[in-house]
Fold this protein.
Amino acid sequence: MAVEQGLVLIKPDGVVKQISGDVMNRLADTGLHLVGAKMVQVSQELAHAHYHHLKDKAFFKELIDYIMGKLHQRPVFALVYEGESACERLRKAIGATNPEEAEPTSIRGKYGRITSKGVFENVVHASENPKEAEREIKLWFAPQDLIHAMYPTEEKSVEQKVKVWRN
Ligand code: TYD
């Protein structure tokens, strides 16, 4: 079995419900290692890039508003896990996309709901497979935000204004 990475997002409904601790405890039971974590205020650009495969769906606008925190006024807690068969193990722990179909003991089964507008507020995301994981991890994290660079990197000179603490 190959070592893989998987992106997990605790979505704004998960953050507002304050279930990050329970989600992380359940994911610890998979035996996978946490190699990156950060709170993210999701931009429209990031939301569209993450859910690009759903852009033709009727629920796309609601989905974008949801992941951007417009419904819950909260950020997303983004995590990267690593280990053998990471994607399969993470997906099993979170449960099916539709919270009504998810195993009741899975994260989505326990905490998810379907809104009256029909959006699945399923509290977490996990990468479907290693290829998707690579695409998603590169969207959400810069190499220096992870404890090691799991994909090839290159040095690049960038002139950039960054915010620093004022003395
Ligand atoms: P998708 O990528 O198909 O599933 P998953 O999150 O399990 O990888 O869908 C992305 C999100 O879109 C999903 O987590 C919740 C939302 N969604 C709906 O609200 N309704 C739907 O019918 C589907 C398929 C997804």
Summary: Residues 3-145 form a domain with the Alpha-Beta Plaits fold (CATH 3.30.70.141). The mean pLDDT is 97.
